[in-house]
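Hi there. Long-time user, first ticket. I'm pasting a complex I've been working with (about 815 residues overall). I'd like to know whether the download I got is complete or cut off, because the file seemed smaller than I expected. Thanks.
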Amino acid sequence: MNRYFYYPVIVCMLTNTILFIPSILIKNRFHGAIPAMVLSVILGTLLAHLFTRGIMRFPGKGVPEVLAMYAPKWARVSLLLFLSCMWFTAGGMVLVCYCRILQRFVNPDFSIFILIGFVGLVCAWSASNDSKTVLYINEIVIILNLPFIGFILFKALASQNMDWDAVRVMTHYSFGIPSWESLASASHIFTGYVNWTIFNRNFQVDAKRQFLWLIPLVGTTVLITTFFIPIGFHGTYGVDQLNYIWESTADSMRVEFGFIERVLFIFLLLYLSIAMIYIMTTWHLGSELMKSVVPRKMNPLLVNHARWSSWIIICFFAVITEISTWLFDEKKYMVLSSAWFQLRLISEVVLVVVIYWIGKKKGKT
Amino acid sequence: MQTDNLIINRIMSSLASSVDLETKHLNNGKFEVEIVYLSSMIEHTQINKNVSLPFLVSDSFENFEHAITSCGAEKVADFSQIASFLLQGYVVIGYFSDIYCLSVKRALNNDPEETKTENTVIGPSKAFAEDLFTNLALIRFRYKKRELTVEPYEVGTSSKTKILLAFDASLAKPSMIELVRDKLKAIDVDMLQASGQLEKLLNDTNYSLFPTVLITERPDRAVLNLSHGKAVLLIEGAAFVIVLPAVFFDFMSAMDDLYQSFWITRSLVFLRYVSLVITVLLPAIYVSIVSYNPELFRVQLTLSISGSRSAVPYPSYVEVFIMLFMIEALTEASLRLPKFIGSTATTVGGLILGQAAQQAGLVSSIMIIITSAVAISNYVIPINSMSFAMRFVKYVLIAFASFFGIIGTSVGFFLLISYLASLRSFDEPYLKLFIGEKNVSYPESEGDST
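Hi, the file is complete. Here it is re-exported in full:
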């Protein structure tokens, strides 16, 4: 049992509200979102299980080292470069989306570019730490935040504005053909385990003693709440009028006797730290993957200046993220993130199959 | 003061002239010796007992030699070392070309005093003394385990300060001890006088903010840490010892935590962390609420804050900086002032200035409350070096809050956490939850067994 395994998984589940997952699901709510969610639970659990099975055969080794043993060089380099870009894109998307949310709901006067630069710089600095530190930060921030997130969920479920009839209506659409777009985005919730591609270097997992059954359990809860609570608050039809569904839902609640009356602010500040951990973790992984394809003769440089080399790689991608804010507006970003989810699902399946297959091959020999 | 002994003459000429350098020519009718010592460094009764008395009763130099070697004298072959022996409080005995050195050092400040910086309500109240071996005795007195290992080191080319490295060989990590040894040997400095200085010399980075070793004056804390597998550095002439490695939680724990009952200690620890959050975040939150997001708090609270600020003519961060500067100056002043004036300074500063500044409309009354809350909460942090570090951290957060409001505050707090987590104290992660500290102070059934 390695408790650090769960922190990236939990972060991945919690970031869904930032990455338009509720919007995509709710867009398809009458056209196969619920079957897609059910399917994503099964698929996510299966993939998590296979991946952990595969990677646990290589204690102390990350995916780059595993591939170096079994895969030809061109395949290894291209796969790792691709994965690295996927990870950087994930972090960059969350950064841009969340900064836009912050600008919209907290301070509309802020320049979005300066805000992204500021948050991105702090995340980049944290991401350039070593893997162990990144996981320690994960643990501390999550444990500080989880009670408040639980409080928001409780507040939502206990709220008088929550219309359970709307939720009951939605169950009528439980059957049907699952929509591919919904499946791709819903399965992102379960995808946190892939962070073990790098973290396996420092912390071992054991699939048999890892309580992997917790992943479908918690994941289902998160999916159900993220999908049904906005519907309960805004109604089955009204809900798709909103761009930022969860922010508006949080703004529909109030704490009558608290210091902070509007739940929206608690929500935004909590998810700011969740988003920052997500960005930090993904960028850390991206930079580690990127460093693993650097030619061998540059290795001493990377080892002696580990911090600086990650810092340079991450800052490069942070600048690209900043540029992408110029190029795409919010609507394009929503389309982009949906496309990214679909690409992610495919590449995740490929990665898991490869790792499981290599692990199996090693188990036989 | 010339004598017949050539070697003694050579030693004398190698030392600069000093009034406390004394040579004596002793003659008991059977043989003659020369003795040299620095009278300021030595205990005269010990010379009488260990040198003069055996000399008078001995009938030959051999007998005298037996007597002094049994008192701990050693024969010195390398004459160039004799001067440094003299400087460390040895008496040098010369008989033709045979030179003996005997330690008769006078102990200075070897009485343990009352604790000054880490007080407890109940619990041992004596601190370490300024004498190396008194301190070692205090540790041995509380830690009677065979595995207690003590290694001597010497640091400082001029001060030649003795340092003892004490650890429990069965508990301490060998890699950590090896690292400490290497670092101690690598220190290159002229003068070493205090524990804080040694802390800086042990530190790898020049620009450190948080203390990565714990400096304590409490023997019970030092011994508790020994039993957790940590190492203790005792420094000659310093009443504070260094405990390493030290992680963040060590600085937030008081020895009272072990001496009070279960729920009381748990709530006190909780109180301490709440105070930490207040002292670090409150000014930053004030700036971001007043200047950026007044809608964050409930309306009544916002109205009372802005009502009290109505007379204040400048933005919130100026107000915060003025008041925090005043309280920092007050803290610093009362630290240096003689005790009798100290209370006057706090009264003038705290009561009169605060009241007057609020009535003159220079700062809001809410700001006065915040300033005092920040200062009081800061004093709750049990270890001084950590509360100093936290005093600094809040300004960074205020700067973040002035530029980015509440977002800057929470991003800054995240940065603080990640900075703390990225630190290492002798390869031990500085901030990490569930550090798995050994439970040595409770029976297994009570409290945390982690």
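A couple of notes from our side: Residues 330-364 of chain A form the longest helix (35 residues). The interface with chain B takes residues 102, 106-107, 110, 115, 118-119, 122, 125-126, 129, 132-133, 136-137, 139-141, 143, 258-262, 265, 269, 272-273, 276, 280 of chain A (CB under 8 Å).
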